Amino acid sequence: MSYRIGLVGKPSVGKSTFFNAATMNDVPEGAYPFTTIDPAVGEAYVRVDCAAPEFGETCTPSTGYCDDGTRFVPTKLVDVAGLIPGAHEGKGLGNQFLTDLNEADVLVHVVDFSGQTDMEGEPTEDHDPREDVDFLEDELDQWYLDILEKGIERYESQHMVEGDVEVELAEQMSAFRTSDEEIKQVILSLDLELDPDTWDADDRLALAREIRKRTKPMVVAANKMDTPEAQANWESITSDPDYDHLSFVPVSAHAEKALKQASEQGVVDYRPGDDDFDITGDVGDEQAAGLESIREFVGEFGGTGVQQALEAALFDELGVVPVFPGSANGLGTTDGRVLPDVFLLPEGATAEEFAFHVHSDVGDGFLHAKDCRVNRQISADHELDARDVVEIITTN
Ligand SMILES: Nc1nc2c(ncn2[C@@H]2O[C@H](COP(=O)(O)OP(=O)(O)OP(=O)(O)O)[C@@H](O)[C@H]2O)c(=O)[nH]1
Ligand SMILES: [Mg+2]
Asked: Which residues lie with the beta carbon below 6 Å from any ligand 1 atom?
């Protein structure tokens, strides 16, 4: 199972810079709106503490890599075109963009916290990033509402009598990968009846918003935190109770990119996500000064925030559980590899579901599973925890 993290936000906030820093790609970046038109997909990584050292072993990853006890597990990252107010009515690049978003399991909303770009992504001063945070939520809600209204219309025109409204709505919203059971739960959780005739405009919007929150969880990447303006906005927004419902990660995409580039040049030793690095090669005065200010930044904020934002999205918001397939005789597998894989499983995945993720044959032949750390048998419906090392015992 591979997850897609979508980078969203208005133009010129630094989505492509973030994307390039995370994936070491080279898509165009620019201080003008709509630099990006076609979405780019790349491979980024999320960190998981490797389990091999606990077994006195060294791992041999088959995908991604391991750096000094930290596994870097590949995941897909998508850089989409900038979104402006009215996109659901076709403004800017409009609906195309929203369609690209459909494919994302979780969103990182990149916001220019420096306040130096307006709603259209043009240069300005003293713009309040709150407006950006609000507009993206509103825009997504309107998009969901449009689709919800279509479902209601269809329900009303086809059935006319009371019926399973949630089935019709789930079908209309199938692109968001929601089920009729989930829609029903949302309707009831808002104290609404299972009859759209009784829903007023506010009810419909509340419903759209709730379905959106569940199907497109997101974190806010407060970008350009290397500027004093952004740091001031950070103080005021993260202490504003109106924004308690969101989680914010302080980010400098510039800093991450500079460190990755210096690392490629072989002049710094930097492990992505770390809050410090070593200068290992000859750097000129200018680069040395730049690196020292980055050192100050990562020390203060606990990293550049790029890794942290990706991991907050996947692990905290989406609830993805990383699991190592292990085996009883040490951790070696038949071809001599040690802990070659880390599987990213959906929240609440059981031992048996894990077996199906490994391979359908493994799932079909499932007998029981074993927690390799404590050498104890676990049952098919046991829910797995992050970093479990699990061996599957099959009939074949
Ligand atoms: N100070 C600072 N500037 C940044 C940072 N990240 C990006 N920028 C600048 O912001 C501008 C826009 O960056 P892009 O990455 O092209 O922004 P985008 O969100 O992809 O823009 P569109 O493709 O037009 O939607 C560029 O001039 C970047 O150099 C950062 O962390 N700090
Ligand atoms: Mg871009």
From this structure: 9, 11-17, 29-31, 33-36, 81-82, 121, 223-224, 226-227, 252-254
3-state helix/strand/coil string of 238-283: HCCHHHCCCCEEECCHHHHHHHHHHHHCCCEECCCCCCCCEECCCC
Q: Does domain 321-394 have CATH number 3.10.20.30?
A: yes
13/234 Cα distance (integer angstroms): 15
- Structural domain boundaries in the chain: 4-126+217-316, 139-214, 321-394
Token couple for 268:
């710094």
Q: How many Å lie between the centroid of ligand 2 and the Cα of residue 79?
A: 7
Q: Write out the chain's pLDDT in tens, 396 residues.
A: 689 999 999 999 999 999 999 998 777 777 777 666 667 889 999 999 999 999 899 999 999 999 999 999 999 999 887 887 887 777 766 666 677 788 899 999 999 999 999 998 999 999 999 999 999 999 999 989 999 999 999 888 876 555 688 888 888 888 888 888 999 999 999 999 998 999 999 999 999 999 999 999 999 999 999 999 999 999 999 999 999 999 999 999 999 999 999 999 999 999 999 999 999 999 999 999 999 999 999 999 999 999 999 999 999 999 999 999 987 665 656 567 889 999 999 999 999 999 999 899 999 999 999 999 998 999 999 999 999 999 999 987
CATH 3.40.710.10 for domain 4-126+217-316, yes or no, is no
Nearest CA to ligand 1 atom 13: 14
Among 97, 74, 126, 128, smallest CA distance to 15 is for 97
Q: Which residues surround ligand 2, an ion (CB under 5 A)?
A: 15-16, 35-36
In this structure, CATH architecture of domain 139-214: Orthogonal Bundle (1.10)
